[in-house]
Write a structure and sequence with these properties.
The complex is a heterodimer of chains A (about 525) and B (about 180).
Chain A: E1 16-20, H1 24-34, E2 40-44, H2 58-65, E3 72-74, H3 79-82, H4 115-119, H5 134-148, H6 163-174, E4 180-181, H7 220-226, E5 230-234, E6 237-243, E7 249-255, E8 261-271, H8 274-284, E9 312-316, E10 329-333, E11 349-354, H9 358-364, E12 365-366, H10 371-379, E13 384-391, E14 400-408, E15 414-419, H11 424-443, E16 448-452, E17 487-489, H12 504-524
Parallel strand pairs in A: 1-2, 1-8, 2-5, 3-15, 8-17
Antiparallel strand pairs in A: 4-10, 6-7, 7-8, 9-13, 9-16, 10-11, 11-13, 12-16, 14-15
Helix pairs in contact in A: 1-7, 1-12, 5-12, 6-11
Chain B: H1 19-22, H2 25-32, H3 37-49, H4 51-63, H5 71-82, H6 87-103, H7 113-122, H8 127-141, H9 144-148
Classes of the chains: A alpha/beta (about 525), B mainly alpha (about 180).
Chain lengths: ~525, ~180
């Protein structure tokens, strides 16, 4: 076996703290632990992409950074029909999906931590309350907002109103809505924390070329590296977590960039591979002792996959908008984010101002459009404005990630199958949201209004959920596996419910809280 | 572009190919894009040997009838699609085109624009239709020269972004608070 090392800091035979995945969760835990003087091995399946190499063209950027390892989607969700081999849009690179996120950094609402108590029984859903409250999360949200440089917090000014946001704001005002904001975005409105101020490039989803947008690639990981405590190994795909005789995680087996199998001894493991790869790794780590996979004694690993109620609406306005100029998602309408069962569904949704380039817009128009009407809509591109829906999706036991052991990917690993059947709550919410966005566009005089197909899943949650009671989930309120005391999950997989908000700020806040918990445990000699 | 600007399905896509047309506006675009005259000549040669190319170009134009987009775009698209190294894909395309000609009672290109649109609608659920639509869509709307016609300005980094120029220049609605 080769002595494959990253920085050469940690030997394969050292019992190390190993973090798998360098995105919002893993990158944050790595920074938090190294800044406390702890050595960390960080395994990242992707390679590093430098900001100057980002490409401002949707197709090329998608090809450059998207996780495209073999997958399969099944069920009644649209991805199973239109994009069954690539149902998710997540990133395989240092920084993970923080490279392509939009920077919307919204806190979850108080009631969203208690969905079972607040919503009651929802058809087909298996709701539990979070084992953590907003009050407990608040100091971590404050810390996360400071770290990310969230506008409208910590004295950070908001951005100016982009053209596209101006349409949303005016439409919402005309309909009598009151909660509309372009604040709470993790994109520098002025230089801060070693990163540049935004110059309104657009192309936030294609990677920020000036690093005004926060990502772990330009913030957490360089800082962790600067501590001298980080051993970052890129191109390294974790394939199995081994345990010792006591049932504790003892090593991480991974394929390195040369395709050689390596085995890093571990005293503590954090998994942050996003909500498909995280359960996939746990399921692949089955053993004589853990016959259903690691941390899966209660059978919850891979279940309750959630990706938000999505979709969007675009409208042709009477005068030019030029939505492509500036921040891609520049603000949101929050009034419909409340829980109000009189609307006919549980949970709420946000309406977010969003622009798309013509190629992506044409691809997502619903139904599959063609002909003169479609041509005329796209010819009016500079008169278009766009809105995205982001709504709470319910956790359903059969919406889940499983492994197809008869089908292997390029590394010889069983292919993950992502099954989603849409429920009645989601359908009712989507219908309501479509009515709302149509009314918004009509309020500002749109002459042609089109719905988008539900876009690819970028928010992925729930497949290793946290629970107060071990029999109801995979990990506890700090992300520690109920079954394996030195194994943690550090990404959005731990969400017991999806909430209405974009998940990244909560992932980062949870990761900071988890790292603090781990560091305290290590100091006590727990691991 | 005005919202009421709604081009009719393009009639001239059924015209016979000629060297003059190839070297016209569309050819000039190709040359400007770095595709030389040899490519144009090979397009012409291929089209004269293979009527499927003209039919596929017409189908693509009927699906995306942008009056301002040069015919050469669609012709070139058809040549590339039918010239694919994937034999099964090429065969599927040719089968779909033959099916269209058969349904047209002789030749798809001989129909008038509205009849062609109706015929396309009748096969809209087929793999042939889906494949051509998706490929044409990606080709067309990823082309900076095409989408510039609709007001899309493409990459912004080289121009310094929009902060100092127009990201917030919408004045026909009141300013947000």
């Amino acid at each position: 076996m080769l002595r494959q090392r990253g920085s050469g800091l940690v030997d394969l035979n050292d019992a190390a703290i190993v973090i798998i995945g360098s995105g919002a969760g893993g990158g944050t835990v790595a920074h938090e632990l190294t800044s406390r003087g702890l050595q960390v091995v960080l395994l990242e399946a992707g390679r590093r992409i430098e900001p100057q190499d980002f490409v401002q063209e949707d197709g090329a950027a998608y090809g450059q950074m998207t996780w495209l390892d073999k997958r399969r989607a099944t069920g009644s969700w649209l991805a199973a029909t239109v994009s069954p081999a690539a149902p998710l849009w997540t990133v395989k690179a240092v920084g993970g999906s923080t490279l392509h996120w939009n920077g919307l950094a919204y806190r979850m609402q108080e009631h969203e931590f208690r969905p079972r108590s607040e919503y009651g029984a929802v058809e087909g859903a298996t709701l539990i309350d979070w084992p953590v409250t907003l009050a407990e999360m608040e100091p971590w949200y404050v810390r996360a907002e400071d770290r990310l440089g969230v506008t409208g917090t910590h004295g950070i000014p908001r951005h100016g109103a982009t053209n596209n946001y101006r349409v949303l704001w005016n439409a919402a005002k005309r309909l009598g809505y009151s909660k509309i904001s372009n604040g709470h975005i993790a994109i520098n409105s002025e230089p801060r924390d070693g990163r540049a101020g935004c110059i309104q490039l657009g192309f936030c989803n294609q990677g920020c070329k000036v690093s005004a947008k926060w990502s772990t690639a330009v913030s957490e990981i360089p800082r962790a590296t600067a501590t001298g405590k980080l051993d970052l190994r890129t191109g390294c795909m974790a394939v199995r977590i081994e345990h010792d005789a006591a049932g504790r995680a003892g090593a991480v087996v991974y394929l390195d960039a040369a395709g050689t199998l390596q085995r890093q001894r571990a005293r503590l493991v954090c998994i942050a591979g996003n909500a498909v790869e995280t359960p996939r790794l746990l399921l692949n780590s089955e053993s004589a002792r853990f016959t259903q996979g690691l941390a899966n004694g209660a059978g919850h690993v891979g279940r309750y996959y959630m990706h938000h109620v999505g979709g969007g609406t675009f409208g042709l306005l009477p005068k030019p908008v030029n939505m492509h100029r500036g921040i891609t998602v520049a603000g949101a309408l929050f009034d419909e984010g409340r829980h109000d069962p009189r609307r006919g569904f549980a949970g709420g949704y946000l309406v977010e101002s969003m622009s798309l380039a013509p190629s992506t817009l044409a691809m997502l128009l619903d139904p599959a459009e063609w002909g003169a009407r479609n041509a005329s809509f796209l010819e009016g591109y500079d008169h278009l404005a766009g809105m995205l829906i982001c709504g709470e999706e319910m956790p359903r036991a059969d919406n889940r990630v499983t492994l197809d052991r008869t089908d292997k990917d390029h590394l010889g690993l069983p292919v993950p199958v992502i099954h989603v059947d849409r429920g009645a709550n989601e359908a009712a919410m989507e219908a309501h949201a479509r009515k709302t966005t149509r009314a918004l566009f009509e309020a500002v005089g749109a002459t042609d209004i089109r719905q988008l197909r539900t876009a690819l899943a970028t928010h992925n949650m729930g497949t290793a959920r946290m629970s107060a009671r071990a029999e109801e989930g995979v990990v506890d309120g700090f992300g520690r596996a109920h079954e394996v005391p030195n194994l943690f999950v550090s990404d959005g997989s731990v969400f017991p419910s999806s909430s209405t908000e974009n998940p990244t700020l909560t992932i980062v806040a949870l990761a900071m809280r988890q790292a603090d918990h781990i560091a305290r445990g290590l100091a006590r000699g727990d691991y | 572009m005005q919202p009421d600007h709604r081009p009719d399905p393009i009639a001239d896509s059924t015209k016979e190919w000629s060297r003059r047309e190839l070297l016209g506006a569309g050819g000039a675009c190709l040359v400007a894009a770095g595709i030389g005259a040899s490519m144009v000549a090979s397009v012409e040669a291929a089209a004269s040997l293979d009527p499927a190319i003209a039919t596929l170009a017409t189908v693509a134009r009927d699906m995306f009838p942008h009056r301002a987009v040069p015919q050469q775009m669609f012709d070139d698209f058809a040549v590339r699609q039918l010239g694919t190294a994937d034999a099964a894909a090429a065969q599927m395309l040719r089968g779909g085109l033959q099916d269209l000609d058969r349904r047209a009672g002789g030749g798809y290109r001989a129909l008038d624009a509205s009849a062609r649109t109706a015929l396309l609608a009748s096969v809209a659920g087929t793999p042939f239709f889906g494949t051509v639509r998706f490929a044409a869509l990606v080709t067309l709307y990823s082309d900076p020269a095409v989408v510039r016609l609709f007001g899309y300005e493409g990459a912004s980094f080289e121009k310094g972004g929009y902060l100092m120029r127009s990201y917030d220049d919408l004045r026909w609605l009141p300013d947000p608070d």
